Amino acid sequence: DEPPVLGSEDTEEPVMEPAEAGAPASLCALLLAEGRLEEAEGLARSQLGDGPEMVTILRQVARVAQLVGETEQALEFSLRAFQAGRGREDFAHLVRLVALERRFVRGDRHRLRSAVVAHPEEPVLIYAAGVWEAMYGDRPRAQRLLRAALRHQPDEELHGAIARELDRLG
C-alpha cells in the first residue's frame, strides 16, 4: 500500500470520532468538538503518552485550531504532530499552514527549493516555494511557481490561496 502523497486529498483525516481510539481519545475528541484545544492536548499527553494515538490527537488539535481561526495554536500543534510522527501528512499540513499564513523566513529558501526538487509534483510544496519567492525573492519566479502549483490541480482551499497570492503579485 503506497503512502499518501504530500498535499493529496488522501492525507486529510476527518476529526476523530469519539469511539475511534478508546476512552482517552474519545474524551479528547469531545473536547476538540467543543473547541477546548489545550484541554484535549493535555488530556492526550497525560493519558496517551507519545504513542501513535498521541500523534493523531495532535493532528486533530492542529486541524480544529485552524478551522476555528486559532492560527498560532494550529501552527504549534501542527509542528508538534510533525515532530512526534515525522509523517508525510504531518509535514504537508505544517508546510501548508506556514504558506497560508506567510510565516516563512529568509533562511527557508534552501529547504523549500530542495523539497520542490525532491517532490516536483506536490502542489503544496510548489505553492510554498512560490509564497517564499513572493515574500523575499523574485516576483517572476514566484508567479511561475504559483502557476505551476495551480496546474497540479490542488484542492479547492489551496486553489483559492494560490489565486489570492497571484493577485497580490499583480
- Percent range of helical residues: over 70%
Q: Enumerate how many helices there are, as a single number.
A: 9
Output mean pLDDT: 80
Global morphology: elongated
Major pleated sheet: none
Distance between the termini: 43 Å
Low-confidence runs of at least 5 consecutive residues: 1-21
* Coarse structural class: mainly alpha
Strand content: under 5%
Rg calculated over all Cα atoms: 17 Å
Please give the number of β-strands. Answer: 0
* Strand/helix succession: HHHHHHHHH
Task: Briefly say what this structure is.
The chain has 170 residues and is mostly helical. It is built from 9 helices and no strands.
How would you describe this protein?
The chain is mostly helical and about 170 residues long. It contains nine helices and no strands. Helix 2 (about 35-50) runs antiparallel to helix 3 and helix 6 (about 110-120) runs antiparallel to helix 7. About 40% of the residues are buried. Mean pLDDT is about 80; it is low at about 1-20.
Keywords:
170 residues; mainly alpha; elongated; disordered N terminus
